[in-house]
């Protein structure tokens, strides 16, 4: 989403990539060249955007950065989740992340296509997934197919048991996250 991108632009000091058909901003961090884009909401848009990005490569690593809904009470709002595994809901393939050192990954992140109620998120938590997002498994799938390392960094933005985001609020979002 655009607010997630703004944080990345500021954190990495990225500049607009004028005329680039894939990436919105570019720059460098340490010895790494960095390019950013908004993949859109949902695993299908994430797959499509990741394929376009990788076609503009080569790339050594893809980072998925943004927010996620927290399920695990040990992950309060504002905490950072760097999952070791992601899976597409309900029973898609499970992918193993490759975080950039010295960051260590732990826990699981379930990728969903939308919002759901208590009878769905509780079993996800019981399966060891501490949070949910809408893109990571789509990005992971394409990166795995292409042999490109990937990792996920998600700040916990809300919790489904607080009912802050409901279907009416969610429906205000456009597919690109605006």
Describe the structure.
- This protein is 27% helix and 28% strand.
- With 178 residues, the protein is an alpha/beta fold.
- The protein has 2 domains: 1-38, no CATH class; 43-169, 3-Layer(aba) Sandwich (Rossmann fold).
- It has a 7-stranded mixed sheet with strand order 5-10-4-9-8-6-7. A 3-stranded antiparallel sheet has the order 1-2-3, covered by helices on one side.
- Helix 2 (43-55) runs parallel beside helix 4 (136-146).
- The model has no long low-confidence stretch (mean pLDDT 89).
Alpha carbon gyration radius: 16 Å
Q: What is the string of SSEs from the N terminus onward?
A: HEEEHEEEEEHEHEH
Mean pLDDT score: 89
N-to-C span: 6 Å
Helix/strand structural class: alpha/beta
Number of helices: 5
Q: Say what the CATH topology of the largest domain is.
A: Rossmann fold
In CATH, the architecture of the largest domain is 3-Layer(aba) Sandwich
Beta-strand content estimate: 25-35%
Summary keywords:
178 residues, alpha/beta, Rossmann fold, 2 domains, 7-stranded mixed beta sheet, 3-stranded antiparallel beta sheet, 27% helix
Spell out the blueprint of helices and strands.
Layout lengths: L1 H11 L2 E2 L8 E5 L2 E5 L6 H13 L5 E10 L9 E2 L3 E4 L5 E3 L11 E4 L6 H9 L2 E5 L2 H11 L2 E10 L8 H4 L8
Parallel strand pairs: 4-10, 6-8, 8-9
Antiparallel strand pairs: 1-2, 2-3, 4-9, 5-10, 6-7
